[in-house]
Specification:
2 helices; 7% helix; mainly beta; 2 domains
């Protein structure tokens, strides 16, 4: 700031030391009073202070812009389609034709023949005879004996007995517990806001040829197209919001408990004690005595005897025979026939389709433009 003031004072002195002219005085007044900008409020001998700078004003102006507009037109185009046609062709195939032939076949036949032969035959004849056989056996003998054993006899006595019982009683206590309450709290969070603006952008347009008035002849007019687009500006902001947080508060409450007190009591109970005593008893003992005896047993034995017998059997005697039999042979004979097959034949068809077309349409919009203002009153500015 000091350097700027010294510079302005030096320039003012330099201009005042130059030849006395109205332009020099105007420059000096501009530098001293206003610093920058056009000179205002000057006379030939003194400098008046500059007027206050006015705020810019805006006004709405109608202007015409070219806006693209899409419409659909109906156009005719040629498309290729296919149709099915049935054609015929000759096909050669082979047919199996049967024919019968005769051939001789030899085969073997077995004839049954009844025959006889003598074979030896061995047989066993049973022969029975009686024999005396001695054998041993055991005979049981029973004997009575006396024995002694110890048994327990039960005797009951009345015995006093002390026992402890727990007698319950109720007690009330006071406690403290935590109770949760939800308390509203204001917190901050970050959000994204689009603070963009509309920006006018000039786009070069094609030149149109035309003729002006008078004798100027033909001329070309190239007017730019003003296109308005949105320029985004994403800004993060802190926004307050309400939420609830839990708050725990101490609260007194009463609760009940059960306390058991021990008490001693006396009762009489029967006690059993076992008294041993000796007891006599009788038991039976069995022992086996071995004895020998004799008995008659009939024994069978077999005696072999050889004899002959005639056996009849059948024997198969083979013999060869010949016979004629017919069999079938197949010959492949070529034949021709006509078959149908389908082909796809293309053809051209004219169709109408919808085509999108873009046109530039003039549109009138209203935009704000700044209005220039003067910093000095009228009849005092140069």
């Amino acid at each position: 700031m000091k350097f700027k003031a010294v510079l302005l004072m030096g320039l003012t002195a330099l201009l005042l030391s130059s030849p006395t002219t109205t332009e020099a005085r105007r420059r000096a007044c501009r530098l001293w009073n206003c610093g920058v900008g056009p000179i205002n409020c000057l006379d030939d001998y003194s400098c008046a202070p500059c007027g206050p700078v006015c705020e810019p004003t805006w006004q709405e102006v109608e202007c015409t812009v070219m806006v693209p507009e899409t419409s659909y037109e109906t156009r005719k185009v040629m498309t290729t389609q296919y149709k099915h046609e049935v054609h015929q062709r000759q096909v050669t195939y082979y047919e199996r034709v049967p024919r019968t032939e005769v051939r001789e076949v030899s085969y073997t036949v077995c004839d049954p023949v009844e025959r006889e032969r003598t074979v030896p035959h061995v047989t066993c004849r049973p022969v029975y005879e009686d024999r005396e056989v001695s054998y041993n056996y055991c005979e049981p003998v029973y004997e009575q004996k006396v024995g002694y054993r110890t048994v327990c006899r039960a005797e009951w006595d009345e015995v006093p007995h002390e026992y402890t019982v727990m007698v319950p009683r109720t007690e009330w206590h006071t406690g403290v517990r935590k109770v949760c309450h939800m308390e509203p709290v204001t917190a901050m969070r970050t959000i994204c806001v689009d603070e963009g603006c509309w920006v006018d952008q000039e786009i070069a347009a094609p030149c149109n040829m035309g003729c002006g008035p008078g004798n100027c002849g033909c001329y070309s007019v190239c007017r730019p197209i003003i296109c308005r687009r949105w320029q985004p500006n994403i800004v993060q902001k802190q926004v307050p919001y309400m939420t609830c947080r839990p708050v725990y508060v101490d609260q007194e409450y009463r609760y009940c408990t059960t306390v058991c007190e021990p008490q001693t009591r006396t009762c009489t109970r029967r006690v059993c004690r076992m008294v041993p005593e000796k007891q006599e008893y009788t038991y039976t003992v069995c022992h086996m005595e071995q004895k020998t005896a004799v008995r008659n047993v009939r024994v069978c034995r077999y005696v072999q005897e050889t004899s002959e017998r005639v056996v009849r059997y059948t024997e198969m005697v083979p013999r060869t025979e010949t016979r004629e039999e017919e069999y079938t042979v197949y010959d492949c004979v070529p034949r021709e026939r006509t078959v149908d097959y389908t082909v796809c034949v293309p053809y051209q068809v004219e169709q109408e389709i919808q085509v999108p077309v873009c046109h530039m349409v003039a549109k009138t919009i209203v935009k704000r433009v700044p209005v220039p203002c003067s910093t000095c009153p009228e009849n005092t500015c140069y």
